[in-house]
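Exercise 7. Given the encoded structure of a 323-residue chain, write a plausible sequence.
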């Protein structure tokens, strides 16, 4: 086992912040995603492509929270890792795989809604259950392939005579890890982020194009406004959970590689990174809440009403928001 002596870091906050926040995420994420999967598996008679995406998203979030208990115990013990090297690699692997799966399935949901709103007729042909199953399988395969190097980089080591489980890699390997970390930031986060923002902004713009329609009565206007609020909430949730975390992670990697001797800057970068880690975890609690919000019956009636008008006026921009 390698013995490493590095800059002294400030980690007193980890004994309280991370165990408490991860415990809260574990309880909420387990109960909310468990309830969502129970509703889907036991009370759903007719599956749709959107429901397939949301089910896979709930599975990814559920597996994500199941990887938290060893991290809760380790952080409560001041980062001491008592579980061995294999569990260290496994926890880090499943933690990141399900985090990236969650982002990718949110991307699938955004594309699905974009097609349903802006291209409702083409969506009937494209949004099939077979395509949804294929896309979901591709997400799991791609996310697993992206995170496979974690099984090599993540391992246990000794720092100041204490066994720890390195989250990314040991300090001596950060130069080798840095290109891979940038790859994850670009392919695993930046590209899905741009897709989500583009799709939802286009969807919100398309929703407003119905404002001039005289047939769009007050009741449908309220439903449309609620759809707008739901989409805006999804955007804000995605930005708040994922953007600061990935920025802080990339900055921390940069400091580790190019400014390893500046202990003060290293401490600042590490604290920012550690503080935003619980925030990204709360995403798995917000996803089922937003799903239940999106299943409002009034929005389903709005879809049916707009689809009926599509057959009469196919050129008009239509609202077809998938719950």
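Solution.
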């Amino acid at each position: 086992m390698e013995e490493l002596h590095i800059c002294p870091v400030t980690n007193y906050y980890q004994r309280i912040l991370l165990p408490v926040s991860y415990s809260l995420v574990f309880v909420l994420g387990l109960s909310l995603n468990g309830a969502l999967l129970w509703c889907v598996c036991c009370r759903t008679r007719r599956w749709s492509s959107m429901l397939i995406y949301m089910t896979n998203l709930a599975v990814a979030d559920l597996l994500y929270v199941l990887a938290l208990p060893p991290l809760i115990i380790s952080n409560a013990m001041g980062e001491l890792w008592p579980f061995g090297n294999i569990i260290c690699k496994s926890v880090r692997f499943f933690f990141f795989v399900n985090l990236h799966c969650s982002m990718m399935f949110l991307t699938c949901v955004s594309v699905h809604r974009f097609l349903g709103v802006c291209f409702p007729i083409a969506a009937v042909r494209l949004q099939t259950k077979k395509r949804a199953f294929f896309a979901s399988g591709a997400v799991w395969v791609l996310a697993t392939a992206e995170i496979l190097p974690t099984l090599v980089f993540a391992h246990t080591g000794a720092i100041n005579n204490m066994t720890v489980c390195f989250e990314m890699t040991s300090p001596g390997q950060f130069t080798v890890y840095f290109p891979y970390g940038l790859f994850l930031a670009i392919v695993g986060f930046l590209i899905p982020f741009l897709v989500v923002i583009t799709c939802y902004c286009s969807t919100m713009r398309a929703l407003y194009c119905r404002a001039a329609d005289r047939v769009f009565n007050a009741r449908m206007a309220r439903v449309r406004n609620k759809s707008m609020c739901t989409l805006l909430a999804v955007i804000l949730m995605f930005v708040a959970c994922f953007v600061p975390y990935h920025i802080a992670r990339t900055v921390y990697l940069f400091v580790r590689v190019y400014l390893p001797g500046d202990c003060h800057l290293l401490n600042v970068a590490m604290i920012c990174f550690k503080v935003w880690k619980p925030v990204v975890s709360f995403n798995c609690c917000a996803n089922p809440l937003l799903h239940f919000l999106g299943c409002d019956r009034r929005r389903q009636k709005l879809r049916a009403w707009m689809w009926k008008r599509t057959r009469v006026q196919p050129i008009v921009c239509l609202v077809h928001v998938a719950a």
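Remark. The longest helix spans residues 218-258. Students should compare their own answers with the one above.
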